[in-house]
Design a protein that fits this description.
Blueprint lengths: L1 E6 L2 H4 L12 H4 L2 H4 L2 H6 L1 H15 L6 H12 L3 E6 L5 H4 L5 E2 L2 E8 L5 E3 L18 E5 L9 H8 L4 E5 L11 H7 L3 E6 L10 E4 L2 H12 L2
The structure holds adenosine-5-diphosphoribose.
């Protein structure tokens, strides 16, 4: 089968990383417009670099959990074509051995706002971080801010149009274009399943598997590999 999997912050929650919109989540602690937009970076680069330095430091202390490992096993098995798309920037899918498309970028990479060069991000990025390629002091986190274009949308469109199964794991389905992938999958007749603590939007998926990802994802993968 052709399977497309979309993951969100909920898959990393049991590894110890906060989500965005759950009780006490990141957007309860920081305003998006202060730390996650190009305008915020232009207005107060120290605050924005500090926000991502804190998240980069946190991500360096956690490990993939059983859900990340189950998806990597599904990909390694090879019987199914699996495109894994994540909204997460924490690097945990890659750490579990998955091939993964980071549509919102990644904390462990830096981007030069002047020449577009990418390089491994230092743990602490400073204001005016120097680009190793062009020398401009224009280094920024290689993450996609609100108002910017997510990565890999063409590949996702192509793969979704041939999907047999679409699974959304640990995402509230609040942020587009990722939130629209389930409708695209249904439009081409793919089966759709949501694995989440609670249904994000009742009626949106053919099937909902409720529970913590470290329980629901390994069980789901075991069925696919039975
Ligand atoms: N197991 C499964 N699902 C969980 C778990 C868990 N242990 N813990 C939380 N969840 C679910 C929540 O029920 C919620 O539906 O994970 C989802 C987390 O939703 P959000 O915090 O909105 O995270 P996400 O959907 O990834 O946000 C999408 O928004 O802020 C932007 O760029 C940011 O990539 C992020 C995007």
């Amino acid at each position: 089968m052709n399977i497309v999997i979309l993951t969100g912050a909920g898959i990393s929650a049991e590894s110890g990383l906060g989500t965005f919109r759950d009780e006490g989540g990141l957007w309860a602690q920081h305003r998006i417009e202060d730390v996650a937009t190009p305008e915020a970076f232009a207005r107060d680069p120290a605050l924005v670099q500090g926000f991502y330095n804190m998240r980069r430091a946190e991500a360096a202390t956690v490990a993939p959990n059983a859900a990340h490992h189950a998806i990597a096993e599904l990909q390694r098995d090879g019987r199914h074509e699996v495109l894994l798309v994540t909204q997460n920037v924490d690097g945990l899918h890659g750490a579990a051995g998955s091939e993964v498309l980071h549509i919102h970028g990644r904390l462990d990479r830096a981007l030069c706002a002047a020449c577009g060069h990418r390089w491994p991000a230092p743990m602490e990025m400073r204001v005016g971080e120097r680009c190793p390629n062009c020398g401009a002091g224009a280094g920024r986190p290689d993450v996609v801010w609100f108002g910017e274009i997510p990565h890999g949308l063409d590949e996702i469109d192509r793969t979704l149009s041939a999907a047999d199964l679409f699974a959304a794991i640990g995402t509230s389905g609040e942020v587009y274009p990722a939130a629209g992938f389930v409708e695209m999958a249904r439009a081409v007749g793919a089966r759709t399943v949501e694995l989440n603590l609670a249904p994000s939007r009742p009626g949106r998926f053919d099937e909902v598997r409720q529970g913590p990802a470290t329980e629901t994802v390994p069980a789901w993968v075991a069925e696919l590999l039975a």
